[in-house]
């Protein structure tokens, strides 16, 4: 069922120091809403600075879709304090507007135009907006205002030195990359535990369908809410972030060169569906950046991605080719509605343990058949994961197992990792997380999705969202900043505006010089 990890766990217990220095970063998305619960129609607040160049506060698809980005840090408390400071600052700057506290969008009227995020007149700014225009035409605006948490994770060099016997990150880039790909393959096999435990989108507003059809047997409440009784994360379902082209299934995670090659192929291969949309309208406005399967690499919607910090003007695939995988991005976390900042330390510590487990448990190459079965497992958990005595095919060649059985085995291993991590401090934080979360497999009613669905059934999605948004705004706006002071926020806002203006001036100068050269 699950590979026996006893030997690897014993090794880890004798090398605890190799886990010192795990690095993490968080990206949190949230919609700005009006006091009546509808999507805000105002521009991105100018006091925040430029969303194009601000380090911490930007926008995602829409002008009303905020995104908060933390720097990378190896201390969980500092990381969460930084994220909370961003929320505290924004709460005080939004005026009467609120931050929507869940992944699935607020109520949106059918005739409401969702304003694409605007980034100014520089080439990169215009490209970012045109890319979003392509997303709108390909998938629809409503899907693109779904919010989530992206969790960036990297193991310290000391781990790879001890585990794989490498000397440094550059000389060992192929070995480290293979190590991260091993994590990714195991994440595809077992990562469904994330939406099972932490999925928090079992329902959504009826307006989200906007005439679309679904084969799923949704229940309609008196509040205009659609839900599934055992769903965990409808954000991750076929109604949410997906790439419709079957060619995406050819993305390969068995070695880095094949992954890069398959990604580049998707970016260069035309899609009949997207060719039909066209490139520009009759007025010459861009409808999409190109008509290929992916406009750019960011359009690949998968639950986990290999990443590397890029150099100026460098694509992600070229960065990976240059230096190998530097970290991984977990993209399957819903906004935690029970937290004012959308994520809690319990989730981070579980992810730490689970990703370490994925790194040390044997992870053979994964073929398209197994990948297809893995996706079926994810879909099963996403739509009916809390069903009593639910089973899942861990190995598609063998009979299914009860989810509770898999949970017992997994948490037996995770508890050993927890003890190893806790040995590096004077606390038992990781072991406490194991103690709490393993009960979720015995009793699905304890999961985030079950608890949140019960709350939604009482107040409705709109009522719950407004209640939580108001509560969190009051709470956050009254708290003192811990890590970033107000002057630093003001300085970053000014710096970002100056940086954007500089980019725009440089682009105009280059355009003028090009014109003069051609004119002569």
Q: What is shown here, in short?
A:
The protein is α+β, with helices and mostly antiparallel strands and 520 residues long. The protein has 16 helices and twelve strands.
**Major beta sheet, specifics?**
7 strands, antiparallel
Q: What is the highest CATH level, the class?
A: Alpha Beta
Amount of beta strand: 5-15%
Name the helicity range.
Answer: 40-55%
Enzyme class: ligase
Keywords: ATP-binding, Glutathione biosynthesis, Ligase, Nucleotide-binding
Pathway: Sulfur metabolism; glutathione biosynthesis; glutathione from L-cysteine and L-glutamate: step 1/2
Family: Belongs to the glutamate--cysteine ligase type 1 family. Type 1 subfamily.
Describe this structure in words.
This protein has 520 residues and is an alpha+beta fold. 45% of the residues lie in helices and 10% in strands. The longest helix has 34 residues, at 486-519.
Keywords for this structure?
7-stranded antiparallel sheet; 16 helices; 10% strand; 520 residues; alpha+beta; Creatine Kinase, Chain A, domain 2
Topology (SSEs and partners):
Layout: H1 6-14, E1 23-33, E2 57-59, E3 65-69, H2 76-93, E4 98-99, H3 123-139, H4 141-144, E5 149-154, H5 157-164, H6 173-190, H7 193-198, E6 203-205, E7 219-220, E8 225-227, H8 256-268, H9 272-275, E9 304-307, H10 316-323, E10 327-333, H11 345-360, H12 368-384, E11 391-392, E12 401-402, H13 403-422, H14 429-442, H15 448-477, H16 486-519
Antiparallel strand pairs: 1-3, 1-4, 1-5, 2-3, 5-10, 6-8, 7-8, 9-10, 11-12
